[in-house]
Amino acid sequence: MMQRVAVIATAVLLFLIEPNFAFLSPLQFDTTLYYFVPRFLLVYLIFLATYHSKKRAMYIGLFFGILYDIFYVDIIGLYAFLYPAIIFLASVVMGYIRPNMVVTSTVALVLITILESVLYGFYSFIGLTAMTWQPFIQERLLPTIAMNFLFIILVAIIFVNLINAKLLRDEMNTV
User: Fold this and answer.
1) How many structural domains does the chain have?
2) 126-137: b or e for each residue (b if 16 or more CB lie within 10 Å)?
3) C-alpha to C-alpha distance for 68 and 159, rounded to whole angstroms
4) Cis omega before residue 26 (within 30°)?
5) How confident is the model at residue 3 (pLDDT cuts 50, 70, 90)?
6) How many C-beta atoms lie closer than 10 Å to residue 118's C-beta?
7) What residues form the membrane-spanning segments (predicted)?
8) How far apart are CA 148 and CA 119, in angstroms?
9) Are 80 and 66 in contact (CB under 8 A)?
10) Nearest Cα to 38, choosing from 149, 154, 158?
11) What's the pLDDT tens digit per position in 46-84?
């Protein structure tokens, strides 16, 4: 029971934290604006699908996708479809690859790239963005990948530290 609460509480916390990091964006260097889009919740759900439960991750992704559509986007259903689809894709890929922290992190970054590209394509198709492909890659996609890469590194370090602390505790109990 406590694990379920912790899974949901972490997802809620990440959902609430993402907009705070989005306020750091855009950053201006010289005359260029760089947009950082945090996808912390999606990274968490990919890790959840890989190491815990694909079904639970997809349900949580659907729920928070709907919330994301309601609060942040004017198009209902876009994130509600894309979050579970990305989580499903992650679980399919991880079914063929032996999951570890590096592989899961790499898959998460590739899937964030796919998500951002699909969103860019959709917004271009319906005319909500006039940004061409080249500026999209330089000013939005690469900074987004960099921000989420830093987040993954921090999460991995915390995760490894927690595992090491548990191992040390177990060793102390056996001595």
Assistant:
1) 1
2) eeeeeeeeeebb
3) 27
4) yes
5) low
6) 15
7) 32-50, 57-73, 79-97, 109-133, 145-163
8) 17
9) yes
10) 149
11) 988 888 889 999 999 999 999 999 998 888 899 999 999
